[in-house]
Design goal:
33% of the residues lie in helices and 25% in strands. It is of the alpha/beta class and 406 residues long.
Length: 406
C-alpha cells in the first residue's frame, strides 16, 4: 500500500487536507472516498484501518478532513452538514479529474449521512456504505443542545464536543434542520450497506433500523457485534473494511487486477517504510496477501509473521503430500490436521550432538488423521510427512542468490 498526501480546494476556496491510499501495484481497479465522523479527522485509527482493508482489495481510497477539522482550512462553525456534503462533492470532482471517477462512498457516523446525500447528487457513485450513521441529520444536535439558546443570545459560543473545544454559530445550528435524510434515503435507488453496532451508545441501533426501512433494495445490513461507536478496537474496523470491499464489488464491473510485477520471479514483497511499521504486501502472479509482525514486536498484526508463513508453507505442503500418497495407496484418509510451531532452542535442550553448543531453529510438527486407518498406515503417513518438498527444502542446505535491481 502507498499513501500520498494531497490537497483539494473546496467550494469556498479552502484547502482540504487529504490522503490517497493506493494498492501495492499503484493501479486501483476502483476509487472510494471515506467521510469521517462528526468532529473527528481522517487520521482516526478506524478510518485508516478501513482504508487499508479496502486498498488490499484493489481500491484506491481518499480520506480527507472536512472544513475546519484536522489539517483542513476554515473554521469548525463552517463545517455544518451542508458544507460537509459540498466538501464530499469537491473531493469527488478532484479525484475524477486527477485519477478516475469514484464509484463508492463510505461514511462513518454523521459522515454516513453525508455520503447518502452526496451519492444522491453524484451519478458516478454506484454504491454507498455507512457505519454507525444516524437516521436523521439533526441527531447530532444533542451534542451541543445545551448551547443552542446561548447561540441565539450571543451569536457565537464555544462548546465542548468529545473533550475538545469548538466554536459554533446560528448558521451551524440551523443547517442541521435543512436536510430531510429519510426522504433522500428513500429516493437514493443505489445499493447501500448499513453497518452498525447493536450497543452503540452514541448513535443507537434504532437509527440503522430506520435507515434500512427507508432505503430501497438492493440494501444490506451487517452487525458490528460489540464494537463501540468509534470502532476503537482494530478488529472491528478491519472487519468493516473487508466486508465493505467484498460487498461493493458485487455492484461494480469485474476487472482484471493489474498485479504488482514480480519481474519474472515467483513472488514480490513490498514494504513502504514511510507509511508502515512492518506491514508488507506480498504478491504472486495471481494472489495477494499481507505479512506483518505482532503488536508485541512493534507491528500492527495485519497479517501473519514471516515465520508463520514459513510454518504455513510446511504445513500446506505436508497436508497436500499426505493426500497424494494416501490416494495413490487407496487408503481411507479423509482429513489431515498439521500443527506446526517454530522456535529457537538450545542444542542441550534438544539433546542434539553438535560441535559447539548453540541455539538452533526447531520446528515441531504434530499430525492428526481422520479416516479408517490402522496403526501401520498412520506410522507410514508420519514418515511421508517429513518427505514433502518444502519440509525437505527447509531441512537441507539452501543456496541463495541475491542481486540488486536498479
Amino acid at each position: 500500500m502507498r499513501t500520498e498526501r494531497i490537497e483539494i480546494k473546496n467550494k469556498k476556496g479552502y484547502s482540504l487536507a487529504a490522503y490517497i491510499e493506493l494498492p501495492a501495484n499503484q493501479k486501483p481497479n476502483y476509487y472510494a472516498i471515506f467521510a469521517h465522523c462528526f468532529s473527528c479527522s481522517s487520521n482516526l485509527n478506524a478510518t485508516k484501518n478501513i482504508s487499508r482493508a479496502l486498498t488490499s482489495q484493489g481500491f484506491g481510497v481518499v480520506r480527507f478532513d472536512f472544513t475546519g477539522l484536522g489539517r483542513s482550512e476554515g473554521e469548525f462553525a463552517e463545517s455544518h452538514f451542508s458544507a460537509n456534503v459540498e466538501d464530499l462533492i469537491a473531493v469527488n470532482n478532484h479525484v475524477t479529474d486527477k485519477y478516475k471517477a469514484p464509484c463508492l462512498l463510505v461514511g462513518h457516523s454523521l459522515g454516513g449521512a453525508a455520503v447518502i446525500v452526496a451519492a444522491s447528487k453524484l451519478d458516478n457513485i454506484k454504491a454507498v456504505a455507512t457505519i454507525g450513521a444516524p437516521a436523521t441529520v439533526d441527531h447530532v444536535t444533542h451534542l451541543f443542545s445545551h448551547a443552542i439558546q446561548e447561540v441565539k443570545d450571543k451569536g457565537e459560543v464555544e462548546v465542548n464536543i468529545g473533550g475538545r473545544p469548538f466554536k459554533i454559530n446560528q448558521e451551524f445550528v440551523n443547517d442541521f434542520d435543512k436536510t430531510d435524510l429519510p426522504a433522500i434515503t428513500k429516493k437514493l435507488r443505489k445499493p447501500i450497506l448499513i453497518m452498525h453496532a447493536p450497543f452503540d451508545s452514541i448513535v443507537g441501533i434504532e437509527n440503522a433500523q430506520e435507515l434500512y426501512h427507508n432505503a430501497m433494495h438492493p440494501k444490506s445490513f451487517v452487525s458490528l457485534h460489540d464494537a463501540d461507536h468509534l470502532l476503537r478496537e482494530s478488529k472491528h474496523s478491519e472487519y468493516a473494511g473487508k466486508m465493505i470491499g467484498e460487498w461493493a464489488k458485487l455492484y461494480f464491473p469485474k476487472l482484471e487486477n493489474e498485479m504488482l510485477s514480480t519481474k519474472g520471479e515467483q513472488l514480490v514483497a513490498h514494504l513502504d517504510l514511510l507509511e508502515n511499521n512492518f506491514t508488507t504486501q506480498l504478491q504472486t502472479k495471481t494472489h495477494t496477501f499481507i505479512g506483518d509482525e505482532p503488536v508485541s514486536f512493534g507491528g500492527d498484526d495485519f497479517g501473519p509473521s514471516p515465520y508463520e508463513y514459513l510454518n504455513a508453507a510446511i504445513a500446506t505442503c505436508t497436508a497436500m503430500t499426505l493426500k497424494l500418497y494416501a490416494e495413490r495407496k487407496k487408503w481411507d484418509l479423509q482429513e489431515v490436521y498439521v500443527y506446526i510451531s517454530h522456535a529457537r532452542k538450545h542444542s542441550d535442550e534438544l539433546m542434539v550432538d553438535v560441535e559447539a553448543p548453540r541455539y538452533l531453529d526447531h520446528i515441531s510438527k504434530q499430525l492428526k488423521f481422520i479416516g479408517n486407518l490402522d496403526d501401520k498406515q498412520k506410522q507410514r503417513l508420519k514418515e511421508i510427512a517429513s518427505k514433502c518438498p518444502v519440509h525437505k527444502t527447509v531441512a537441507s542446505e539452501v543456496v541463495f542468490d541475491t542481486e540488486l535491481l536498479v
